[in-house]
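User: two proteins, same treatment. go.

Assistant:
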Amino acid sequence: MDLLDHIEKTSKSALEINKDNLKRIVSDCSLSAFGRDHGFDSVHSPQDYISAVDAGCYGSHAPYIEKYLSGDETALTAYTVNCNLLSSGSSGSRKRFLLTDEALRRYSSYWYEVPFRLQKQRERKEFHVGAYRKGEGVHNDTILSAAFYWNLKNNGTLREENIAGGYPFMFVDGLESMLYLKARLFLSCEDLSAIISNYLYDLTVFFAYIRDNFDMLCDDIRKRDFSVPVSEHMRKAVESLPHPDEKRLMAFRDVFFEDKDIRTVFPSLGFVSGIGGSVYRRHTQSLRRILHDTPVYYYTYASSECKMGVPISFDRSEYILLADTAFYEFADLKENRIIPMEDLREGMSVSPVVTTFSGLYRYVVNDELKITGFHNQSPLFTVEGRVDDIINLAGEKLGASVFQDAMGILSERTGVIFTDYALAFDFSSTPACYRVYVEAPGQKEIQKLSSSLHSILQELDSEYEDVCRFSLLAPPRFCLLEEGTLRAMRTSLFKGGHNKASFILRQDEAEYLAAKENS
């Protein structure tokens, strides 16, 4: 069955599928250590299950994960474990989750195939920004995107002839010099139907690398040389690529330095994909300088815990819940209670509580979702950010998504394009204020934006307005950075895991930028 037809069919019976998922998980995993400890053999309804298992986060699962890692293969689940997923966690502490063959089967090829089906593309040539290693170490540790694409390769869904450069540029032994190799590949492509990235932020980094190293890359192409260390295997792969002529290289220069539409070099480009939307709005704005009105597909809503949604249209970061991937409940963030899927209503702010086919039971995912409507029985939602992403300098408790909305409105009202930005607290005077670091090419004086952002934040958030009314917060202070400074900072201070590029600065990041200001 076509994936779009499958999404349509499951959306019509999403509530029944959700309950059936729970029955199957409880039945299949009743003899796991977790199932025995929680009396799964006595669970006959969702109400029984809720009584038997408390909702929780990683801590309630960690002892069972440790048992599995110590050799108890049925500690958490009866399903065959494919690999272990490493996550840096929102707190920066490393977490390890199991990923089973059953979960991968249910994840299907949604986030890869759906945009092609929406555009009914038959002739495909895809450029993948990411490169993926096999699992490493005794526990076969990897990340979700790598496990997903290796699975598609192994089951024949991901066809080598559709991939720019073929498998050698996508499935690799190591990531050394990979940006360089991907850039050489990109500049050799004669046409593309899709550019696929895990995060739109990854694509901004990739395009910035090409722009920053364009002359070196062109010189190497002309001389058929390599300015960075490259394995013999990859050297041969690069040498087998089409060789762009001077006219072609100058056309790329116009795209990266004159903001020409990327479809002047790739006329068949149907879409660009990557995780983005309201949480990553600044990345989409930055990419528009190159993409212009090329459709953007916002890829997927997924995490190491579970793959939960995909968009069903372009240029909208609205997702449909995939009913067949887990048993879903939701934490109502306003009422502070957990509700069943059938109690969701448009406009609610919730966090998913998932019971998965990979051994998570009533696991609270600390993301804030806003229910925007329904497609048949399946909820539609946007991702507003992390529940614990709160900006609280003077008691305002401003949601991170509110600040991002304010920056988007500021850009729309003033015409200033922020290609990147970051936020720190400034205690250098009383009252304190937000210190907003921005990259805004072509701008020289941005302090005039301070009062505008201050007013917008008060329009959007009553608690921010109240704090300002009592003179507890001064207007934000802006600091203009050279383009690429924030990217260099994140690269320099990257601590491992997924680099999701939060705009709220850690202490070491704030100190890094303060030193740049003072130097």
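Protein 2:
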Amino acid sequence: MFKKNKRNNKTGNGFLDVLVLGVGIISAIFLPEYLRFIPIITSMMLFVLRRVWRILKSKVLLYEIDDDLVYLITHMYAVSTGKPPRKRLFWLNNIAGGYGIYDRYLRKIANLAVEWGYGFNKAIRIVVREVKNKVFRDFLLRLGEILNIGEDPERFLDVERRAFLTEYQAHYGRVIEATKLLLGVYTSSVSSAIFLVITFLIFSLLFSTTPNTIIFVYIGIAMALGLLIYVIYRVLPRDRVTHTMGIYPPERKRYRLLLTIGMALSIVTGLYVYTATGIPSLAMALGAAPLLLPGFYARRIEKKIREIEAFFPIFIRSFGLTYATVPHVPTALSSVLRSDYGPLTRYLKRLLARLSLGVSPRISWLRFIGETWSEMIRRNINIVYDSIDAGGNLAEVGTVLSETTFRILDMRKQRVQVSKAFESTIYIIHTLFSAVLSFILSLMNIFYLLITTIQQSSAYVPSVLPFQPIPVELVDMITPVFIIVLAILNATVIKVAQGGMYETVWVPLAILLFISGVVMQSMQTLAETLFSGILEIVHIVEIT
């Protein structure tokens, strides 16, 4: 099974490589001849970078601690409180998803130790040769020594669990501090991009440069910001809010329906406004408004899930203590439900109703996880269910899970504080970018019209004004596209900084697009008002 998973991963990576190259080649077919090299070179660079990254990842020994590893050690400790056979510590009963590659390593150890008769210490030493995570490898070696001398693993796993949780908390804090620096670099990059674009636009007005120069500048800025966003994405923890277990609440279907309606309305509104008025900025602003429908609904779902998670540590501690006294799940649930757990209460009542009606405990817990749609609850219920199955001490398990969940939720609050300040900064910088760019383009249009009109009015004027400014029609057409791409990048980096449900990205995207459209139209009107005298001169020259 282990080799089969590795083959599947290789097949998936090969498919993605072919897809990247194919997209680049197909995109080049639909572009003008002088722009075809851009998607081809970009796709080839991405292909080479993916190959190099996979080679380095397979060769380099990583020192990584994540929430999967923390919950895995906690799961092993919870099972060990029931004093099961040693194989049971490695062959965990995950009813709602496991721990990825860690599961595969543990199950391979169990197979080698029991089915092939290697013993756990030797099996661990064989498997750790394939483990690239130094933290996990060292943990397995320590566990192997404990099992080799015949010690009870419960105390060892408890000590390791505490150490891993403390180290993860410290690591998370260091990542947040590093992220502050990266987010500061991103905002500085966007600010620098403003001056870069303005400089090239002014040069193109004064000197005879081709419109391709501006296009290359736009593409270069977008690619640089996209690369920086990818770095930020790789540095920050995923902090998933929703699970992908396969059982979902009705809210997921409603969100998808609202997303389809919102995108359809957005496209139709944008095309209609642009066809009716011919103003790209107005079409951008009005076309972005329908995207708020799925965005705000996703935020509502995310808020509800976070409220559920906030009450979960209290519930799991109470349930564990009650179950330790009365080892019967429906009775323990009915006892703890005498207290109120906010929005979590109704889902607990549904769970109790299913169990009381004789529904399978496995199905009942799975439905409970699916209805809450919480990744945090999925991880915890995985451990609780397996602990009950292994005859674990639920009083200890409930207290440990409550402490672990509370500390992880507390870590995520630090990220929320950082992301809020960054989001406000991005809105301000994006507004300034759109305003300055639109104002400069309006000036370019006015002076281009003035210079070309004067040059055409007399044969002697070109000798006085020898330069030929670039045609602004192409720049006027490309700039709104660049602003849309920039809004997408900024909305993406806001969501990457926030973490949580990526479905809420439609809210910052809609706000940024709306701001861009309104500001661009306002700046264009302001420039025409301020330089109305020049426009009158142009009109007089055309008449004469």
